[in-house]
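Issue 218. Parser rejects a valid record. Input:
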Amino acid sequence: MSKMQLGPFQIDHPFILAPMAGITNSPFRRLMRRMNSSVVISELVSATGIEYMGQKTLDLLKFHDEERILGLQIFGEDEEHLVKASRYVEKLGADFVDLNLGCPVPKVVKKGAGSAMCRDPINLGKILTAMVKSVNIPVTIKIRTGWDESSRNALDVVKAASDAGVSWVAIHGRTRAQGYSGEADWDFIADVKAKSPLPIIGNGDLNTAETAVKRFKETGVDAVLIGRGALRNPFIFDQSARLLRGESFPKPQAQEYIDLLATQQSLLAETYPERSAMIHARKFLAWYSAGFPGCHEFRKKVFTIDHGDVLWSEAKVFFEKAVSLRDDKFLDEAFLMGGHG
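Output the parser choked on:
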């Protein structure tokens, strides 16, 4: 399949790793690029944190050239901080800066950031214009359908973004009030896409390759973001790309999971001190194992093991046995509905 155009970028296919708080760190982004995600985006990083140069904040912005095409995502409500953060992201060498306007978490929204900013598209447009003018790299945004069912104003936000010079808009198909409950409204996303002057990326409930391809084709969006689906099925990007090309894809075997785990173990060890690497490893192993026979017992074990080598060894034993016994119907079930950005 020939490359596709997304804003100013040529991409291999339309299946992109969604930004997720506490999840899409640099090692995971590198892993997902190797697993054939066409673009990756960081977890949300505070523009105010960047202003004050907090080390924890700056650590979240670290990346590897292997990740390209890479966007670093920022959030905040202060125009000056957002402009300075955009410039800093450009200085670091990221390919684009993404503004989170979709986060529904109360501690973000109560300050006027995240999805709260979309309640006033006119003021938002002024902030976006300032951001776009301040950098030479593309500025993109991620939003929700609206604040609640009575104020689904995504199209107004898209038009304000277009006037400001934003390169594309990603839309999660739920309102802020929904959080991660209910179902993503892809009909609404399709309607916005049909009327939008900008490229639109759809997002929400893409748990299988079949669903990702179906939503991409049916809605006419320019690409789709896959988030939680990649935690249950880290092979989903390659599977989706194959399916879009009209190819079949084999069910992942135990050795593919073992190779994946070995790669992630190496990337975590390269990036973090041993204790931090362990904390991240536990989370990902718990997510990957969801739906496998014996996953509950395995997850309990994961959070009691204190030595990294033992942890990864146990994971290898688990997946060697469990992969052949798994029924993939579980992939369609709700997962991580608490949300991650």
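Fixed in the parser; the record now loads. The first strand starts at residue 4 and ends at 6.
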